[in-house]
Structures are given as C-alpha cells and as structure tokens.
Write a structure and sequence with these properties.
- It is a single chain.
- The strands form 8 sheets. A 6-stranded mixed sheet has the order 5-2-1-9-21-20, with helices on both faces. The protein has a 4-stranded parallel sheet with strand order 13-12-11-17.
- The chain contains 14 helices and 25 strands.
- It is an alpha/beta fold.
C-alpha cells in the first residue's frame, strides 16, 4: 500500500514537472495539496467542491464506499440491501483528475510538519487539511453495555442487527418456553431521537409483515417493542406538537414508549429501566453520540462531546490550514447555539470550507463566516406515518411521509441507488413485504440467540 501511494504521489509530481517545463524559472508553480480525512457527507461534499480547483486532493477513508446513513435503519430491518444505500467512492471521482481516493486508516497528525500518518500509506504531506471523521455512539461511561446493545453506524452494524432480529423470530418459532419466547421477541430501543423512533416503527412493521402467515407457532401478540427515552419528549430537535404526533404514531403501531426513564444497566439478559428489569434478547442503542477523537491528534480544544471547537470559518485555533466539519466540529452559530450533528450541516460545511481553500489558493478574499441554512427536520415512523418541520410549514402523517420519501430519494448519491430504493419501496408499499429477509449464516440462530430450554416440534 505504501508503494502504491508513493507511485500515486509520483504521478502527481510528474504532472507538475511536465506542466512546469513550459514555464520560466520564476513562473514555476507548485500545486497545493488538500487532504480530507473521512468520506462521509462532509468529506464527500468538500472533495466534490474542490474538483475544479488548482489543487491535488486526497480523500482518505477506512472504507471504500460512501454510506447514506439516514436509510441505514432500513437495512437493519430488512427493507433494503446494503448496496441500495452505499456507493463506491472511487466511482464518484472516476472522471476527476485532481481527486484521489485512499482507503486507509489515519493514526495521527503532525501539525507542525503538516503531515498525516496513515496505517498503510505512511506519511502524507498536506497544505490544507479537512477533518471529517464523524461521530460514534457514546454509552455515557458504561462501555460494557456495548457488548449487549449493538449500535447502528455502519453496514456491518446494520447486518448484525438484521441477523439478530430475524434470528429472534426463527428461534422463537421452535421454542416451547413462553417466557423465553417473550424475551426473544422483546425489542428494546434506547434513545428517542430520529434513529430510535425510525427503528422502533420499522421493527413494528417488520413484526407484522414477518409474522403475517409466515410463522405457525408465534403471533403478533408475542412481540413487544419498547422505546426508552430519558428526556420528557421524543425528537428533541422538533417542536412539542411534532413530538406528540410521533408519540401517538408509535403507540398506534403498538410500540411502548417510556419517557423520562433512564437505562441503568444492560447485559445479556436485557436491561434495567428506572429500577425495573426487562428481559430482552434484542437491545439496540440509539442514544447519544460523541465525536471521534481526532482532536487529540493535534491537541485541539474540544467540547464535552469531544468535537473540535472551530472558528467562524470552521478552522482550528492556531492552525488556519486545518478545518473540522460535520459531527467532528463544535460550531457556535450566530444565535449562540451549537449546530446539531446532522448530514445537512456536514454537507454545507464541506462546501463552505472548499470555498475558503479555493479563495486562499487564488489569493482572494475569504467568504464570510459560515452560516447554516436549516431546511427543516424530518423523521418517519412507519407506513404513511412521519413528521416534518420545515419552519414555515409543518406536516404530519401521509404528506410528511411523502415529503420524507422524496427528499431522501433525491439525496441518494447516484441514479442507481435512487432506482433501487424506489423499486424496493414501491414493492413494499404494494405487498407490505420485506425484500431482504435473508439470514446468510447457517449458524445465525445458534450464535445470535441461545435457547435456555430444549425445544420439541
């Protein structure tokens, strides 16, 4: 990998030398190098905006694909396949000569020498650096819970959760112990944000469609779905009226919503909520997040959630050549509030930072301080059930669901993904079926859920 990167680096240098052969000694120009760490919404937006600039751009990410995370819960609940919401990053830049994609993991940054250290590629020099490493889930100091409560952040996470959900039904079908069946078919979601309510609604619909005529020994009455939220309302970013609509929609789907209740313990048997133990074979963590620890690489000042505190141009104090965007950045807006960790924030910051860098390369005045344009908040609860708050208008029910569907289709990265998702959604709407109900491992039911009692058929 180090040799491959060196060869790629030499290609850029050769291009510079060829271009400089036609220039006089005083006209030789060295193209600046922009390194972007992270291929999420922010990093991708920055790279796209830098395509036509006089800079060599290196986009470094641990995976070889861009993931549309807002629909990841549908992979976890068997509505979509991973390829429907993920696209190979290299394909997006196949016709762009100044952007190179490097699949590697960054392990450190030497800000003084302006070098990034990657596990396989070694040292990579930069003139400008954009940090877009995103966030990870936080268990609020209870890291031991992670072994029993999977999170939803990557395709691997989604496939793991999907296997657990589908295996729970399969194991319950062959179980004779009523208590064990209740434990297997009790699904607990921790966190009342968009991911939590979308997962709860999707599992409720999965239970209905999966159990309707497919199983012989278990029924919908055996399924229990809980959503636990420590706060007093769901969807903290929405208005109270929208939160109430979401609450009522979940209850219509049969979801038990526990508001103002804190999770005190999670283990292999289930969880403890407000002093009450709840037996569950499937606890899914959808609660708080924290920025990945990129701030420690450069000794930057960070907020409580480990996000790097940035200035009006998203640059880091004492390092005007280093920018942090998206979930990694703690940006205080003109209203005094910190911007939320949402995809639109990351995309807008990515494009803005690209403009700042382009202006510096051309020695032009920098654009005005970054200003986030809030286009609204949406969350889907189930079939024709959603809430949307665009500020100037609020939608509920089917109109909100339709708006949510159209917006998410348009935000998908390419036409193939839009077509695949549209076809799957149409098929699901007509048949109420799930297109991805496949357990790929023959041992899934043994490794994921172990029966405490023998079974007889």
């Amino acid at each position: 990998m180090n040799q491959a990167f060196t060869k790629m680096n030499d290609t850029f240098e050769s291009g510079r030398e060829a271009a400089n052969q036609n220039l006089s000694a005083n006209q030789v120009v060295k193209r600046p190098r922009v390194v972007i760490i992270g291929g999420g919404f922010g990093g991708l937006a920055a790279a796209k905006a830098l395509e036509k600039t006089e800079a060599d751009v290196f986009l470094i990410d641990r995976s070889n694909h861009h993931l549309f995370q807002p629909l990841l819960y549908q992979v976890a609940t068997a509505a979509l396949s991973p390829a429907d919401i993920a696209s190979a990053t290299r394909v997006m830049f196949s016709k762009t000569s100044n952007v190179s994609v490097v699949m590697d993991e960054v392990t450190g940054i030497d800000a003084a020498q302006r070098q990034v250290t990657a596990r396989n590629s070694g040292s990579i020099h930069y003139d400008f650096l954009i940090l877009a490493t995103g966030a990870e889930y936080s268990f609020f100091g209870n890291d031991a819970w992670a072994a029993h409560a999977p999170v939803l952040k990557s395709i691997d996470d989604a496939l793991h959760i999907r296997a657990r959900l589908l295996a729970a039904f399969e194991v319950a079908e062959r179980c004779d112990d009523p208590e064990e069946i209740r434990r297997l078919l009790t699904f607990a979601l921790v966190g009342g944000g968009p991911t939590g309510i979308e997962m709860a609604g999707a599992i409720a619909e999965l239970a209905r469609t999966a159990l309707s005529g497919n199983f012989r020994r278990i029924s919908e009455e055996d399924v229990r779905i809980l959503l636990v939220e420590a706060g007093s309302t769901l969807l903290g970013a929405c208005r109270n009226s929208q939160s109430q609509v979401a609450l009522e929609a979940l209850r219509e789907l049969g979801v038990e919503v526990l508001l103002g209740k804190a999770v005190e313990h999670i283990d292999a048997h289930g969880l403890v909520v407000d002093g009450s133990p709840i037996a569950s074979a499937n606890v899914i963590w959808c609660a708080g997040t924290q920025a990945r620890p990129a701030g420690a690489w450069i000794g930057a000042a960070t907020a409580r959630n480990k996000a790097i505190i940035v200035g009006p141009d998203c640059a880091i104090a004492n390092h005007p050549e280093i920018f942090a965007i998206g979930d990694l950045a703690s940006y205080t807006g003109s209203d005094g509030n910190t911007l939320p960790g949402l995809a639109p924030v990351a995309k807008q910051q990515g494009r803005y930072v690209a403009k700042v860098i382009a202006a510096r390369i051309k020695r032009r005045s920098a654009p005005r301080a970054f200003r986030y344009r809030n286009w609204g908040t949406m969350a889907v609860i189930g079939r024709a059930k959603a809430v949307a708050d665009f500020g100037w208008i609020r939608l509920n029910g089917f109109p909100a669901w339709l708006a949510w569907s159209l917006v998410h289709l348009m935000l998908l990265i390419d036409f193939r993904s839009r077509g695949a998702v549209y076809l799957n959604w149409t098929w699901a709407w007509v048949t109420r079926g799930r297109a991805a109900r496949i357990l790929t491992s023959p041992d899934a039911t043994q490794s994921t859920h172990k029966l405490s009692t023998p079974v007889s058929m």
